Amino acid sequence: MKILITGIAGFVGNHLVEHLKDSGFDGGLEIMGIDVNLDNFHYRNKNIPGVKIKTSKIDLRDKEEVTGLVGSFKPDIIYHLAAQSSVGYSWKKPVETFEINVFGGINILESVKECCPSCRILVVCTAEEYGRQKKGVDKPIDEDFKIQPTNPYAISKSALDFFSTIYQKTSELLIFVSRSFNHIGPGQSDRFVISDFAKQIAEIEKGIQDPVILVGNINVYRDFLDVRDVISAYGCIINNGKPGEVYNVCSGKRSKISDILDMLLSYSSVKNIKVKVDKNKLRPIDLYSVYGNNKKLILDTGWKQNYNIKTSLLDTLKWWRKKKGVI
Q: How far apart are CA 279 and CA 256, in angstroms?
């Protein structure tokens, strides 16, 4: 089995390799990883029995390079994870965000059509595409909910989402699309809210930050799913899903950010940590409640959730404690 992973050195990419190497494939497993920064890839230059891993530092915006790599490797499966995924950064660099997320994704699809049309492709998009629900309506979002993005990152992913599903119909490629809600877990960048909280708590415990945790808007609700469950869902979609379909990847439950913070603080060895709003952490537009309906994912693919929120939070905090030398 030949598997191409874009964004292999990212949070999800590293967890995906960890999952794949233990999955077992008849005839062995070859993984080709693409990333512009491979320094953060955990398995670079490591020997894994039964698994061959190669990496390439390629910018997905370069169509010639992408086609050359896809044509030479000829993957059976592609997990297209690579993206500029920070909402905050997308406000600062909207053009770069659009180039990476839209043109990079199109280059992958075009290269597959040209070089290996039987390849199965998962295009990872985002629940940020859904935007606002109607005023007064608070219910889980399903895949038929109106797309109305409210930030440059979500706009770029909406464009790739629409292109992928239309392209599947016209090309008959085996394209699947996920709309992934917030995922959390050990190894996530502190650009994301839960990991940011965990990092600050670890630094407070280490004594390198005052016992004050800085936050943005914590009076909102989000749907959090452990990255290891996310990876499992991606595998179920690409193996059991229906080409051209979109699948929400989510827990199906909403959690208030302030409650998540309280839970993390309860795990800390330092008591009476103060909470202070930092205006630099506030978004220009912030949605009150975003959580998904995962019934289609479960019914079509057989996926099931294995990690609860407490385990995810503790594992994330332990990871930051280890990184900061607390444990």
A: 19
The hierarchical CATH code for the domain 193-220+255-289+313-323 is: 3.90.25.10
**Spatial distance between the Cα atoms of 228 and 18, rounded to a whole number of angstroms:** 9
* Domain 2-184+225-253+292-306 bears CATH identifier 3.40.50.720: yes
Angle at 176 between CA 175 and CA 177, to 5 degrees: 125
CA distance 183 to 223: 8
List average pLDDT for each run of 10 residues in the chain, which is 327 residues long.
96 94 80 92 80 93 96 98 89 95 97 97 95 70 93 96 97 96 95 95 96 95 96 97 98 96 96 93 77 97 97 97 93
258: number of Cβ within 10 Å = 15
Indicate the residue type of 196: D
Taking Cα atoms as reference points, which of 73, 72, 71, 96 lies closest to residue 86? Answer: 96
Ramachandran quadrant class, 24 (left: phi over 0; alpha: psi -120 to 50; beta: rest):
left
pTM greater than 0.85: yes
Domain positions in the chain: 2-184+225-253+292-306, 193-220+255-289+313-323
3 state SS of 38: helix
User: First and final CA of the chain: distance in angstroms?
Assistant: 39
Q: How many CB atoms are located within 10 Å of the residue 165 CB?
A: 18
